[in-house]
Amino acid sequence: MDSLKALCMKYNVKSLYAFGSICTEDVNRNSDIDLLVSFQPMDFGDYADTCFELAEEFEKILNHPVDLVTDKSLGNPYFIESLNKTKTPIYEA
């Protein structure tokens, strides 16, 4: 958990949540890890690079595929409702 916290601090993460099957009894060894991230304010040009780099770092640490979703990409109300049912906090700045 300390390595996740260190990554969050390095990449200016405001909050990080797990959601989806990893937070339910439906999880299995083939499940990816769904993470919802919110960043501290940053330049628009740095945003995409930060997302991709952070996802790669999480996959290295967790040794598992990660699906990183940003709070700014949320728009579908049905997806948001589903996400909120299993959302579990991991990190808050």
Q: Specify the number of helices.
A: 3
Residues in β-strands, percent: 25-35%
So, the CATH homologous superfamily? Beta Polymerase, domain 2
Low-confidence stretches: none
Our measurement of the CA-to-CA distance between the termini, rounded to an integer number of angstroms, reads: 14 Å
**Helical percentage:** 40-55%
CATH topology category name: Beta Polymerase, domain 2
Largest sheet: 4 strands, mixed
Mean pLDDT: 93
Strands across the major sheet, in which order?
3-2-1-4
Task: Give an overview of the whole structure.
Helices cover 41% and strands 26% of the residues. It has 3 helices and 4 strands. It has helices at residues 2-10, 44-62, 77-86, and strands at 13-19, 33-39, 66-70, 88-92. Helix 1 (2-10) runs antiparallel to helix 2 (44-62). The mean pLDDT is 93.
